[in-house]
Structure to design on (848 residues):
């Protein structure tokens, strides 16, 4: 016991969380130089990484665990973050030997866990590096703005340094060192907005997103047009929709921009495919659902209200106002945006369209979802061709905060011995 | 017997064939007005429709059979073709009552058959209307240029009025009446060029191509850029590649343009998907096959020859010279271009990658294909993740002629009684 207490005293530990981010206006960079992953506008949901960083004079080597599995701590991106936080700490101490401060020469242990599926297109590396840098900064008492440091881990990590809605600004320098992320609106700005992640596959994505995007920059003529002409206009529109909490505008633009991003992936040579047949099923389901409510909620033939059609937007016919909107990042999972009062019905539509194989009671996770009865008309119009078991589960979440310090010591991922706690 | 002979004497009949067409530079129109289907550059393979048109004073009504099944002859597009050919015939006769000529008041019977799968993205309606107009013109003794008439049936039919390589020229009039098709090179121009159609599904395509394209014109910002900036340049390049029989240039541009066309479909709102997971398999297979031969045929590190990589075209690294090239029209079937000496090996690669379910001996149809032994290196590098039964069969063909008159009376699709012959 005495030895354990001595070890505990010698151990300094800090735990932080950081959110993943979901792009609502997606990648459109035309330069190859870093930052490689340029999503102009993202949303941080309550899906997060938790990271504990610990330092001790008793540790004999740096070690790293991801989701309980030990990884190579020598990864250049991890080392770059570690080096940079230590540099800031050294600078802060002004070269003086502060004996009360944690020694920068101690070895460190790092443990990191996600509350969402890893590497399936949910910006897990962004959350991971944002969280790593936050925990390290806390450990070493660094209070500087950390976006720039986090970017050394992942080009997109700076976006996970804020909650709510985050805009990435590119800067002027060719090396990207003056690019930065800004919070457009905090997580409390739009209380009714909900996010449903349809987790359709635990598989790793086939092409690393950085390699894919570099190839797009080099080979896609459409990406160039998108970056130079389309996105600047869409970015301004989307900021306005968010400011005004205009779900129709927000949802429609999110769908269009997701589709256009994947179009530029397809225009890459060789082409990159993130959307699968199942993604197409989800996309078609969302359009059928919106079309059904477009028909039923808008009185057809009412003065000034044009007739709407399901599969064809004729000239001068305004688009169907969406009840739900989809977006797909560099992976097969579908992200659905909806307002809170739509969630229960749409979740039931998803459950009917992708009947759960075995885990029926764990099909919906995250925030609670009420029950909803579907009208026969809705089922007939929307629930066509069910695909059993195709959706593993639904994560129900909403906009969340940026990196947070975890005060409760029982939440540390490392135990008093500096090793990962065994999880029940 | 006497009655039958009398009926036969009263019956006038003509049979023609017309080819489908495969777009090598694809749809990029920005106007909604007709012609709706603007494929700037196409190839006519030896896949064709055969149509017999017959007229008799004994017929009591107009009738139409497609692939042996009676259809509604009142279809507006069929009627438009019929009306237009009769108008040309009347004009030709100059109003004089030529008693030797077939009466324009007789009812007609039409039978049409395809030697390829119908409505699976192989421009079957183009071939069908080109063939209908050719057979009707022959029946009525019309010898005018018929592209304009065929266009009343299908916007793309004018391209099936020629063999070899066909360019569509748009004209200036908003109604499209001065647009026309021109033969760029005859079917004999490139004797080594081969076409493999991987028939992956007999299903009908989910969205009619005209509706899809109109929606694209209205909603896709990328289509506008493609039409105004990208395609004019690509069209000139492709004409040059064809003129010079440059397979590397031809193949690479065909693949890129197919991908970009499908990108604009995805940028349409709601999005249009013609490519499926199986299309992605075929695309990946072609890239692996080309990469393998890019590695083996180009000595790596040879002076002036840059290293090539499979999945990433780095800056200043010229693309891998293709041995095979894919293109997809508005349907799931893959079309592969290759030179004759590549066909046997690639067909064997397809057979290994999509092992035939039952019809192993009918897996390859059309022109004969030699046998090929695959090296273990090729199999290891290219034949990954076989998908049994996914490809129904392969059609092996090559550039073919435009509409042809069928002289042999035994080839008429209608019998002496004016009804479809029963096929053995």
């Amino acid at each position: 016991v005495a030895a354990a207490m001595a070890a505990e005293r010698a151990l300094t530990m800090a735990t932080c969380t950081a959110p993943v981010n979901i792009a609502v206006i997606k990648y459109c960079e035309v330069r190859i130089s870093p930052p490689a992953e340029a999503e102009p506008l993202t949303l941080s949901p309550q899906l997060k990484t938790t990271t504990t960083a610990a330092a001790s004079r008793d540790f004999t080597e740096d070690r790293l665990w991801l989701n309980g599995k030990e990884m190579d701590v020598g990864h250049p991106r991890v080392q770059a973050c570690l080096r940079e936080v230590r540099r800031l700490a050294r600078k802060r101490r002004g070269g003086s030997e502060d004996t009360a401060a944690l020694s920068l020469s101690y070895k460190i242990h790092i443990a990191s866990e996600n509350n969402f599926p890893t590497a399936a297109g949910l910006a897990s590396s962004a959350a991971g590096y944002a969280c790593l840098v936050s925990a390290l900064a806390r450990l070493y008492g660094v209070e500087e703005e950390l976006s720039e440091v986090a970017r050394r881990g992942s080009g997109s990590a700076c976006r996970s340094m804020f909650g709510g809605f985050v805009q990435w600004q590119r800067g002027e320098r060719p090396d990207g060192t003056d690019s930065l992320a800004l919070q457009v609106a905090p997580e409390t700005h739009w209380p009714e907005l909900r996010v449903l992640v349809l987790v359709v596959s635990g598989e790793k994505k086939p092409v690393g997103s950085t390699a894919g995007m570099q190839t797009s920059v080099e080979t896609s003529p459409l990406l160039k047009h998108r970056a130079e002409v389309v996105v600047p206009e869409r970015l301004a529109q989307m900021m306005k929709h968010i400011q005004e909490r205009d779900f129709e505008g927000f949802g429609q633009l999110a769908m269009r921009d997701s589709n256009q991003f994947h179009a530029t992936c397809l225009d890459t040579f060789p082409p990159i495919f993130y959307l699968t047949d199942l993604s197409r099923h989800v996309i078609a389901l969302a359009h059928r659902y919106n079309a059904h409510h477009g028909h039923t909620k808008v009185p057809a033939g009412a003065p000034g209200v044009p007739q709407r059609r399901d599969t064809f937007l004729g000239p001068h016919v305004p688009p169907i106002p969406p009840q739900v909107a989809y977006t797909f990042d560099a992976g097969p999972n579908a992200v659905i945006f909806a307002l809170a009062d739509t969630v229960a019905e749409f979740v039931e539509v998803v459950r009917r369209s992708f009947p759960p194989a075995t885990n029926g009671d764990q099909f919906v996770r995250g925030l609670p979802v009420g029950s909803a009865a579907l009208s026969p008309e809705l089922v007939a119009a929307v629930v066509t061709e069910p695909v059993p078991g195709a959706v593993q589960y639904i994560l129900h979440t909403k906009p969340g905060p940026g990196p947070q310090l975890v005060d409760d010591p029982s939440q540390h991922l490392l135990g008093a011995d500096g090793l990962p706690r065994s999880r029940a």
In short: Chain B has a mean pLDDT of 84. Residues 11-93+100-186+404-411 of chain B form a domain with the Ribosomal Protein S5; domain 2 fold (CATH 3.30.230.10). The longest strand of chain B covers residues 11-19. Chain B touches chain A at residues 32, 207, 211, 214-215, 218-219, 221-222, 225-226, 229-230, 252, 255-256, 259-260, 262-264, 266-271, 273, 275-277, 280, 283, 287, 311-315, 319 (CB under 8 Å).
